[in-house]
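User: Reviewer 2 asked us to show a designed sequence for the structure in our supplementary figure. I'm pasting the structure tokens here. Could you produce the per-position amino acids so we can include them in the response letter?
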């Protein structure tokens, strides 16, 4: 698909598909919104504004208040590509969101989906203990 076509996909047209996917697996709109808030820095009001204005993905991510620096912890394969290896930053952000939605639909805990700081702290302590021994 032509990159310019991908950039012009309207976020508001994809959001209901994300919602349908997660709800069909027993998850909630609130959980979906939480992962979007975590990734982008939007809140309930600003996310709804983006949906109402029918912005495309390029605008959606360009106007994101605070793209989460922990997004780089999102790894794995989505649509046949390793998300951490995608060179186009906009496509990578779109795939990060796809990956988070997939994890939510697959039943992963919110703590793991959001790459919790608590989880990161535990990993660091284990690494430090291992190095001392």
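Assistant: Here is a per-position design you can include in the supplement:
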């Amino acid at each position: 698909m032509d990159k310019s076509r991908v950039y012009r996909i309207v976020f508001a047209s994809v959001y209901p598909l994300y919602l349908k996917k997660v709800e069909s697996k027993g998850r909630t709109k609130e959980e979906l919104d939480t992962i979007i808030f975590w990734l982008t820095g939007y809140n309930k009001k600003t996310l709804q504004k983006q949906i109402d204005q029918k912005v495309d993905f390029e605008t959606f991510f360009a106007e994101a208040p605070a793209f989460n620096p922990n997004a780089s912890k999102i790894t794995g394969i989505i649509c046949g590509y390793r998300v951490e290896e995608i060179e186009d930053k906009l496509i990578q952000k779109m795939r990060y969101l796809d990956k988070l939605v997939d994890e939510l639909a697959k039943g992963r805990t919110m703590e793991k989906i959001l790459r919790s700081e608590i989880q990161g702290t535990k990993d660091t302590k284990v690494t430090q203990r291992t190095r001392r021994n």
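For the response letter, you might also mention the following. Helices lie at 3-7, 11-24, 29-40, 44-52, 57-62, 89-105, 110-113, 117-132. Confidence is low (pLDDT under 50) at residues 118-133.
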